[in-house]
Structure formats: C-alpha cells, structure tokens
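Hello,

Our lab assistant flagged a job as stuck in the queue for most of the afternoon. It eventually completed. Since we weren't sure the result was trustworthy after the delay, we are filing this so someone can double-check. Below is the sequence as submitted and the structure that was eventually returned. Let us know if re-running is recommended.
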Amino acid sequence: MQQDISKSIEACASHYGDDADAMRSYLLEGEKQAFELKNRGPIRFDENGHLAQDILDAYSEYGFYIFENVLQPDELKDIEQELESMRATFPLEPNGQLDRDGQPALGADCLAPNLIWSKPLGDPLGGSDVANGRHQIKMFEPAADHSKPEWAPFVLLGSLQFSETCLRVYGHPQLLRVAEAVNGEDFAPFNESLFIKDPGIGAAVSWHQDGDTHWDSADFDEGIHGFNFMAQVYGSSAVNGVWVKPGSHKVGKIDIKELVEKAGSERLEGLVPIVCQAGDVVICNRQLLHGSFANSGFETRVTVNFGFHRRSSVLGVNGAGIHSEAQVYDESVIEQRSRVIAYAIDARKQRFPEELSYEYRPLSTLDKDFTWNEQAKQSLKDYNLQDLSI
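-- returned structure --
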C-alpha cells in the first residue's frame, strides 16, 4: 500500500509544474506531522461508560480525532457492494434523468438536491457564492486525462434515503455514544452525505470552515456549530484525503484569503492530512479550517459523512439555508428530522442483532413506531429538505 501512496504523491506533485518539488515536500511533511499528533486510537469508554477523557481532551485540542477500526470487514463489504450497485443508477450527467441502462436515475424524482457534480479534478465550490461564500478561494485544478468523462459526481446529499448501509453506519451504537459525550444526550441531527473522490477525477474542496449562524454569538465556543463523522470505506491519504489546521476550531472566523496571500500559495502553513485506514471514522469539528486537493493520485476515497449538533445550537434558531431552506427550528422540526436516527438504530439492529443498540432518549418516550421497513424507507424521500443547517 505504501508503494502505491508514494506513486500517488509523485503523480500529484507532477501536476504542479514548477511547484512540483514544493508540493511533494508539502504532502510528505504534512503526512509526517499528522502521525506525530496524539489523536488516534480505538473508541474507548471508562468504567462509568463515559467516553475516555484523553479522547475528549485530544479532540478539544486538535479539533479532530481518528477512531480506528470502527467498521469491521463485513460491514465494509456491505458498503462496497451497495455502492457499486448504487453508482450504476447514477444519471449520466448533471440533472440527468436516466441512468446508463436508460432507467430512471437515482434521485431523478426528488425535490431535494442530491448529486453534486464537478469537472474532473476541478474545484466547483472555490471562489463561488455557494454556501454563503464560505469557500473563499479557488484551489488549483490539475489537468485531467482526456480519457476521463466530462463530468463526475463527487457528493451525494441526503444519502440515507438511497443507502441502507450508510443508514446502518449512522446508527452505530459506539458512534452515537460519542455524539452524546460531545453534544449531550439530547443531541440533534445535522446533514448526511457521501463523498466520492475517484482517482484522476475527484474534485478539490476549497479551504473553508463549516458553520454560518453562530460566529458572532455571545455564547460562541469551540463546539457551537457541531461536528461531522467521516467514515472511511477505503482509507484516506495526503493525496486524496481531507487536510485540517489543528486547533483552528477555537479561533473564530478565519480570513482564508489572507492566509493564502501570506503562504504565497494554497499550501497553507500548519495543515495536516487526515490519514486513515479502511474502517476508521474521524470526528471533525465543523469550525476547523479544512479542505482537500483534487485527487490526482491512484487511490479512491469514499467517505460516509454525517454530523450532529447540540440541541441548544439549533432549537429556536433560524437556519442558515445552506443545506436546506432557512426556517426556525422548533421542537417539532427537530423531532421530525431526528426520526432518521431511530430508523438507523433499528436498521442496524436488524443487520447486527448481536450488538447492544443505542437508545436515543429524545425519541424513546414517544408512542411511535420506528421499525425500519419498506414504509419507513419511502418516508425518507427528500428528508434532507429538513436538514438542520447552522
């Protein structure tokens, strides 16, 4: 595997022309620094059932933590097989209605956005007004091989309505216990997606911070915009993975243009890649400065992405309108959106009955049936129109 990564680093650097040596050094040094951080290991709980304090401390210090070996081989195989089948139903082009077999494409009958596309090795968000302009600069866009398609999907929004295996990851009991430890037992859902970074195609994601509504809040702190879990199906590297600036989740809104000007390039100082193996799951603070380069290497990255908020961060708040239409999030809105958690817990229980399921307390006292079945699946159509976007 290491030999392949070395080849990918060389391939990536070769796209940067006169800056090839600088890019190669940046990738290698970033990878070295990433492994020097004390923020990776299995999910551990203490004798009282609480998430280990050293994990919480490291997450607070760096803004991210890599949980190793969370998804086991049988679950990864499930995801890979479903992903292959699901991708066969993708439309052939942006806004396309038919798949390669001439059948109605995935998401063709949805009102909510689902597939986001990019030119191969492009940066479709950088320097645009998308997401309230959070992607302040455009990343370098390497020249893709002429054999590559004109367009390639790189994000699938509302992924849980299309993928039962992603839904089961969402209901993972240990990950939900982590969410409770960080955001409280009344934590609320955020948004779910599938990131696809195919070799020689995968798009760049310009440096940015997530979060929009609470930067100027009197109650601002390091966790007010929530976090994302990033479950790795194949692993991630310095070439195809997300890069982050450790500790940047605590400093407020960052002027990224100024950082780029200071660095003299998009190779910002102090960033490290999130290097993972298949089955690892990263918890990443949404306020952390992060992004990724175009995947000009040889390894695929597929990330099952999903996030959670503190209830106090969303209750009574007027949404940012980035992932869904802006609205005030009252208890009924949050409850309706949270049903996905309950369905995920039951879907996982059906596949892994030997596990001790998580109990999501905000819904546990309701007289409602959250059995995962075909009717429940149909009810999730366009559920991401209710994403709690802050």
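-- support follow-up --
The delay was a queue issue, not a problem with the job. The result is valid. The chain has twelve helices and twelve strands. The radius of gyration is 20 Å.
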